[in-house]
């Protein structure tokens, strides 16, 4: 797009982003030097930052955009209010954008925040001009969530809710603790800027910085640092391939507090129907990715065609073993649930499963060795 036919600037957004940024940097620093802050300011900063962040990740993103679980109306109202506090537009608008992002990821003409249009554009630039003006008429890619009264209530009252949370709440806290300007700066401006930019990192940094353990079909990356800043959303490579999984960080050691929140709420009946992709599919994607790397390595070796054929053969064997293990595991769980088998049959099945597990472990070790040393495929 040439400079002359760029769409018009959205002055409201520019004013909000620039104004809050200046207040959060210069204003907060000046006030701190001149008057200082108390522990109350910082505690409320943390609380409000978490409230905004989790409302976006657990609510806007994993609940409404991707429908990875169901939530009790109480949870939905909390997320709707927290989302207005995060000032990232209504649930309906946000989810519509996000669904288009997933559907057309990296397509510069269709993805609203395509990372291929550069860091600045995907981070914030896409919101500074009327790039999407023609798109929002009926939010037709979000017909399903339009049936949720909480979504429509928040969409209708988005502006008063956003004002209440972003102006009313800091004023209220300021009056409570006797420091109006201090709370306006810390909870009004600093919290908003931190919340905005950490979320925006998912569209920008999480598409350029990190690893791609599952797929290279798009630019999304897994990044532990970003996961830490974004309540678990940094495992973006996993998320783009398995968007219907309520988890983003699937390993126990991966930092994904959004997943922990959704899971722990399910123990109290506040969330339900948590969707997970089968471990077979996840493992298969990981293996396919290592196969891709091994093939690239093998190309430069002598007799590369034969090496590639051998690696592919090993890959197929491993995947079929994986499937066998997965099927047997499912069978075990099903039988245990329905208690259909006799005790000795169940014991036999679990011995089989253990054997298969050991075999699979060995196969995986061999596979790892092979993909690191592809020339050994011929030996
Ligand atoms: Zn993305
Ligand atoms: Zn998503």
UniProtKB/TrEMBL annotation:
<keyword id="KW-0560">Oxidoreductase</keyword>
<keyword id="KW-0275">Fatty acid biosynthesis</keyword>
<keyword id="KW-0472">Membrane</keyword>
<keyword id="KW-0443">Lipid metabolism</keyword>
<keyword id="KW-0276">Fatty acid metabolism</keyword>
<comment type="similarity">
    <text>Belongs to the fatty acid desaturase type 2 family.</text>
</comment>
<keyword id="KW-0444">Lipid biosynthesis</keyword>
<feature type="transmembrane region" description="Helical">
    <location>
        <begin position="9"/>
        <end position="33"/>
    </location>
</feature>
<keyword id="KW-1133">Transmembrane helix</keyword>
<dbReference type="InterPro" id="IPR005804">
    <property type="entry name" value="FA_desaturase_dom"/>
</dbReference>
<feature type="domain" description="Fatty acid desaturase">
    <location>
        <begin position="42"/>
        <end position="263"/>
    </location>
</feature>
<feature type="transmembrane region" description="Helical">
    <location>
        <begin position="39"/>
        <end position="60"/>
    </location>
</feature>
<dbReference type="GO" id="GO:0006633">
    <property type="term" value="P:fatty acid biosynthetic process"/>
</dbReference>
<protein>
    <submittedName>
        <fullName>Acyl-CoA desaturase</fullName>
    </submittedName>
</protein>
<dbReference type="GO" id="GO:0016717">
    <property type="term" value="F:oxidoreductase activity, acting on paired donors, with oxidation of a pair of donors resulting in the reduction of molecular oxygen to two molecules of water"/>
</dbReference>
<dbReference type="Pfam" id="PF00487">
    <property type="entry name" value="FA_desaturase"/>
</dbReference>
<dbReference type="GO" id="GO:0016020">
    <property type="term" value="C:membrane"/>
</dbReference>
<dbReference type="InterPro" id="IPR015876">
    <property type="entry name" value="Acyl-CoA_DS"/>
</dbReference>
<keyword id="KW-0812">Transmembrane</keyword>
<feature type="transmembrane region" description="Helical">
    <location>
        <begin position="157"/>
        <end position="177"/>
    </location>
</feature>
<keyword id="KW-0408">Iron</keyword>
């Amino acid at each position: 797009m040439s400079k002359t036919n760029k769409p018009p600037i959205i002055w409201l957004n520019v004013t909000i982003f620039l104004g809050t940024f200046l207040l959060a940097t210069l204003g907060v620093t000046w006030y701190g030097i001149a008057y200082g802050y108390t522990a109350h300011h910082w505690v409320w900063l943390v609380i409000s930052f978490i409230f905004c962040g989790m409302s976006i990740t657990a609510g806007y993103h994993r609940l409404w955009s991707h429908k990875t679980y169901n939530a009790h109306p109480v949870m939905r109202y909390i997320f709707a209010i927290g989302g207005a506090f995060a000032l990232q537009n209504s649930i309906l608008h946000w989810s519509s954008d996000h669904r288009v992002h997933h559907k057309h990821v990296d397509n510069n003409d269709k993805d609203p925040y395509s990372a291929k249009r550069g860091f600045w554009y995907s981070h914030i630039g896409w919101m500074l001009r009327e790039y999407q003006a023609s798109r929002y008429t009926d939010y037709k890619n979000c017909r399903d969530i339009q049936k949720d009264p909480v979504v429509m209530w928040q969409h209708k009252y988005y502006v008063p809710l956003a004002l209440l949370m972003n102006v009313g709440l800091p004023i209220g806290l300021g009056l409570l603790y006797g420091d109006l300007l201090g709370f306006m700066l810390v909870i009004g401006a600093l919290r908003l800027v931190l919340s905005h930019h950490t979320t925006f990192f998912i569209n920008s940094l999480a598409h350029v910085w990190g690893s791609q353990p599952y797929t290279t079909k798009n630019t999304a990356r897994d990044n532990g640092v970003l996961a830490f800043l974004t309540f678990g959303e940094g495992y973006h490579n996993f998320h783009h391939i398995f968007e219907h999984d309520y988890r983003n960080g699937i390993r126990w050691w991966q930092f994904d507090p959004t997943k922990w929140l959704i899971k722990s709420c399910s123990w109290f009946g506040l969330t339900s129907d948590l969707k997970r992709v089968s471990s077979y599919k996840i493992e298969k994607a990981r293996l396919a990715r290592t196969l891709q790397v091994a093939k690239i390595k093998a190309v430069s070796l002598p007799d590369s065609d034969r090496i590639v054929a051998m690696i592919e053969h090993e890959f197929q064997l491993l995947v079929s073993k994986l499937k066998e293990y997965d099927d047997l595991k499912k069978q075990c769980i099903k039988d245990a649930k329905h208690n259909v088998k006799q005790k000795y049959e169940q014991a036999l099945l679990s011995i089989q499963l253990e054997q298969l597990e050991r075999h699979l472990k060995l196969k995986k070790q061999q596979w790892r060795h092979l993909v690191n040393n592809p020339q050994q495929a011929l030996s």
